[in-house]
Design brief:
CATH topology: NADH Oxidase
Order of helices and strands: HHEHHEHEHEH
Oligomer: single chain
Largest sheet: 4 strands, antiparallel
Helix content: 25-40%
Number of strands: 4
Low-confidence stretches: none
Strand content: 15-25%
Strand order of the largest sheet: 1-2-4-3
Distance between the termini: 33 Å
Structural class: alpha+beta
Radius of gyration: 17 Å
Number of helices: 7
CATH architecture: 3-Layer(aba) Sandwich
Shape: globular
Bound molecules: flavin mononucleotide
C-alpha cells in the first residue's frame, strides 16, 4: 500500500474484531510515531498504551470515555504532548504558544500512527471526547502534559461510511 492508498483507506472504525493486535505491530506504530517532524525537533509526544482487560476496566470504572466502543477496542493509545519540551520561549510574536506547538507536533506524530495502522490492516479512531482532567489525575501525569485525544486500534469489524464522489458534489 502506498501513502495515497493509506490516506484514501483510512476511515474512523468504531467496531473491532475480537482479535489481538501483536506487540510487534504496536511497536511498528510507535516506530512511525517517533519519526514525525516537530518544531525544534522537540519530539514532545508521549504515549500510554492500554491493552489489558484490567486497564480497560479501570478506564471504564472511572467513566473516562462517553462512548462505550472505546472500552471494546483491543488497543487504546493515550496521546500526550509535553508543553515543556521546547526551548525557553523567545519574546517573538511569531511563535505559537507551547500548548499550540505541542498539539500541532503531536498531531503529526499521531497521523503517522494512523496511516501506518491503515497500511497494516488495522482500523483506528481518534477520540477526543474523554474526561481529560480525570485521566491525567489517574495516571499522575505532570501538569504540563496535554492529553487531547486517544486513538483506538483494532482489526476492523465494520465498513466505513461512504463519502460522496467528486461528481456528486459538483453542481
Ligand atoms: C481530533 C479528533 C477527535 C475526534 N474525537 C472523536 C470522538 O470523541 N468520538 C468519535 O466517535 N469520533 C471522533 N473523531 C472522529 C471523527 O468523527 C471522524 O474523523 C470524522 O467524522 C470523519 O470521519 P472519518 O475519520 O471516517 O474520515 C475525532 C477525530 C479527530 C481528528
Amino acid at each position: 500500500m502506498d501513502v495515497k492508498e493509506a490516506i484514501v483507506k483510512r476511515r474512523s472504525i468504531r467496531k473491532y474484531q475480537d482479535k489481538e493486535v501483536p506487540d510487534e505491530t504496536i511497536r511498528e506504530l510507535m516506530y512511525a510515531a517517533r519519526l514525525a517532524p516537530s518544531g525544534n525537533n522537540a519530539q514532545p509526544w508521549k504515549y500510554k498504551i492500554f491493552k489489558t482487560e484490567e486497564e480497560k476496566k479501570m478506564l471504564k470504572e472511572n467513566s473516562i470515555f462517553k462512548q462505550d466502543f472505546v472500552y471494546t477496542a483491543p488497543i487504546i493509545i493515550l496521546c500526550c504532548g509535553n508543553t515543556k519540551a521546547y526551548p525557553e520561549k523567545k519574546s517573538d510574536r511569531l511563535d505559537d504558544s507551547n500548548h499550540a506547538r505541542a498539539i500541532r507536533d503531536l498531531a503529526l506524530s499521531t497521523q503517522n500512527i494512523v496511516l501506518r495502522a491503515t497500511e497494516l490492516g488495522l482500523g483506528t479512531c481518534y477520540v477526543g471526547w474523554m474526561d481529560k482532567p480525570k485521566i491525567k489525575k489517574l495516571l499522575e501525569l505532570p501538569e504540563e502534559y496535554i492529553v487531547p485525544y486517544v486513538i483506538t486500534i483494532g482489526y476492523p469489524d465494520e465498513q466505513p461510511k461512504t463519502r460522496k464522489t467528486i461528481e456528486e458534489i459538483l453542481l
